[in-house]
Amino acid sequence: MPASGRILNPLLASRVVSADEAAALVPPGANIGMSGFTGAGYPKAVPQALAARIGQAHARGESFRIGLWTGASTGPELDGALAAVDGIEMRLPFQSDPTLRKLINSGRMHFTDMHLSHVAPQAWFGFLGRIDTAVVEVAGVLPDGRLIPSSSIGNNKTWLDQADRIILEVNSWFSDGFEGMHDVYYGTRLPPHRVPIPLVGAGDRIGEPYLHCDLSKVVAVVETHQPDRNTAFAAPDAVSRAIAAHIIDFLQHEVAKGRLPARTLLPIQSGVGNVANAVLAGLNEGPFEGMSAYTEVLQDGMLAMLDKGTLAQASATALSLSQPVAERFNAGAAAYRDRIVLRPQEISNHPEVIRRLGTIAMNAMIEADIYGNVNSTHVMGSSIMNGIGGSGDFARNAYLSIFVTPSVAKDGAISCIVPFASHVDNTEHDVQVIVTEQGLADLRGLSPRQRAQCIIERCAHPDYRPALRDYVARAALHAPGQHTPHLLDEAFSWHTRYLREGHM
């Protein structure tokens, strides 16, 4: 029996090897489907061993790179290690590692940015190519070979089903309390055989707590004992607290208008990050209770809401907790098991389910333009930050689609409200509300010209409002059309000025 006692299936117990031995089974040029979603549930030993092997091959002058597919971003032991040795030819669908980002923006690495709900279906359709190997972290293996997922599910079900060979990392750091927290739905089909997903409440369980795999495909099992490594969230500052206050006032207004249920609202979704976490902290101090979440990631702020009772139940595909909160959660996971459901991301991000549940979507952005187009991914129009993630899945299908950002960046050198977004991920048709620390712009039912006035006066920083007003006034005189007036020779002048002079 392996040392951890977590591998209860005799066949898989006989296949326990070192990380180096497992990594030796990965061929150059392969597409590798690895677990991991927003820094949770990613393999930690095999990727580092693979990175060492790739580095040695490069030192000998040999070519060795792989295609790397995950659920979303991972951790330094995976993305960071493989990026450091220039070991990735193609990466999808989302990333956040700084070294990897530099390789993408230098043109050294290819990156396919995808809606997270699209990844599993497109893999099944065969649009992405063949998955040679799956490397998936789990918390344990049952006697019959079923797998207990760890802190994320992401695309693991698809990788296990489609890969030619499977390498498992069994991580004994995760407590026994994780067993039973997951809900893996095996009812999805390919067109024309699809059926409705029978999920009508955020906390519904429609699948089973375990992952399945063909045991004959498992070529190696590696034991680990290591936590996820997530960056700690910053304490809410004045800007993020102001954004949160505007959102809470708006939600209370919607309750007063009879457009939201009092106290419980509708299921909330929140992107990841310091501003998003501050919004959750604000909601936790607000007038709401017994709420639900239907989201991608459960972060520190949502766990605090569960602890207080502001949140009654939460559905996600991954945990993304700072180190001290993760340790506390791990120790008491069993207490959360009935209130947290972790699902495959093809379900957590499913557009039809999001729309049917009436989700309130709150996501961060890099910039918005005066007509409500949102740039979630690109700095100055051409350098990727992280990727669109699930914001598009939720924004287009949400009951309320809210995007947030500070009004300025780089100590005021950049305005996050611009004449024309330098890249558009979420169009004006999918954006209902924009919020900065300056205020909230409710764009529902407004024409483009009305949107421009609302966004400038309520969301733009005062230092940039005069220039935005001037742009709109001159566009009204000189633009070739007046539905969405633009001066095309000036639309990106703010961005080019920043690149040239360091200030918009």
Task: Give a quick rundown of the structure.
The chain is of the alpha/beta class. 31% of the residues lie in helices and 19% in strands. The longest helix is centred in the middle third of the chain and has 19 residues, at 238-256.
Question: What general outline do the C-alpha atoms trace?
Answer: globular
Number of DSSP E strands: 25
- Tell me roughly what share of residues is in helical segments: 25-40%
Q: Over the alpha carbons, how many angstroms does the gyration radius reach?
A: 23 Å
Helix count, per DSSP?
Answer: 18
- Look at the helices and sheets and give the structural class: alpha/beta
In what range is the share of β-strand residues? 15-25%
Distance between the termini: 63 Å
**How many strands, which pairing sense, and closed or not: the largest β-sheet?**
8 strands, mixed
| Poorly predicted runs | none
| Overall pLDDT | 96
Report on the architecture of this protein.
By secondary structure, this protein is an alpha/beta fold. The protein has 18 helices and 25 strands. Helix 4 crosses helix 5 (98-105) and helix 16 packs antiparallel against helix 17 (465-478). The protein starts with 9 loop residues before the first helix and ends with a helix.
Pick out its properties.
single chain; 504 residues; alpha/beta; 8-stranded mixed β-sheet; 5-stranded mixed β-sheet; 19% strand; globular
List the helices and strands and how they pair.
Blueprint lengths: L9 H4 L5 H5 L7 E4 L11 H14 L6 E4 L6 H9 L3 E5 L5 H8 L4 E2 L7 H7 L7 E9 L5 E3 L6 H7 L2 E7 L46 E7 L13 H19 L11 E3 L3 H11 L6 E4 L2 E3 H9 L2 E6 L1 E3 L2 H9 L1 H4 L3 E3 L2 H4 L2 H7 L2 E5 L2 E3 L4 E2 L2 E2 L3 E2 L6 H5 L4 E5 L3 E2 L4 E2 L1 E2 L14 E4 L2 E4 L5 H12 L5 H14 L14 H9 L3
Parallel strand pairs: 1-2, 1-5, 2-3, 3-4, 5-7, 7-8, 9-15, 10-12, 11-13, 12-14, 15-20, 16-23, 20-24
Antiparallel strand pairs: 5-6, 16-17, 18-19, 21-22, 24-25
